[in-house]
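User: Before I run my own analysis I want an independent prediction to cross-check against. Here's the chain; please return only the structure tokens and, at the end, one sentence I can use as a sanity check.
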Amino acid sequence: MSTTTDSDRDTGDSAPASGIELKSRRRWPIIAGIAVVAIVVAALIGWRISGSDSQSPNEIAGSTLTIVTAEGNAAEQALVNFIAKDVAPRHGIKIAFKGLADSTTLNRAVSDGEVAGTVYQHKLWLSQVLAANPDFKEVAATPVFRWGFGIWSDKYQSVAQLPTGATVSLYSDPANEAQGLWLLERAGLITLKPGVDRWKATQDDIASNPRNLKFRLLDFAAQSRALPDLDAAVGYTEYYLAANIDIAKQIFAPPAPDEFAGQLTIGTKWQDTDNIRKLVAAFKDPAVQNFLRTDPSVRNILLPL
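Assistant: Structure tokens:
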């Protein structure tokens, strides 16, 4: 919608001698403008009505079901493409991959039914997204894989070598900060308070820190870039390999617990449709776990359950 200013109304014509002429020359643009606005409003109302009645591909037989992840994630794309080519046809569905820019965008697309699902997140990340966006309606349908996740160091070959006062980076979002604290506890570097929910832990929940580790919170890409300036970092394998950091610099990497498994996340509204039931079955197919165990395109990044 445009706004009209005084300069818009003053066309530059000199005022005519006749008031009648003035009236006839000024009314026509106004009437025409009203007519144009009415047409545009009617078109918008018609578009909204038709849009609200349109079906999601999730509920149309034979539709292609799109699985989204963050743009540039080659391993997740390879997994979805494998399922699309070798698994989905056996379950009577068609699947395609699409990369989207950020977590909020792709979760909104899942919630709205624009796409069928995502394998971008574990349950804790999903709970964080839903808490920040209460209008989103999504559910974790099934675990699919575990991300490679470990302690990395450019200076030391084992966690035992980390010195007192070492600077260790954790991820800056709450869900993955908790995962990092769990891993440090697993490595024997810290202990968390009794009774703490380890999947929601923060630094305030640390009971003991015998080496007086100092923590630095960084986002995903920044952490791997900063590794030479840190004593250690706790992060996802994919970001380190993408930064051409040798896997040998991952000095501790036990299997992640189920809470941190990558989930096929679907829109709640469509979870009982025939298409989505078949989609979940495809992601549960044993061939998926065999692919994760054997295919070099996902090695060290996406791990089997």
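Sanity check: Residues 1-52 have pLDDT under 50 and may be disordered.
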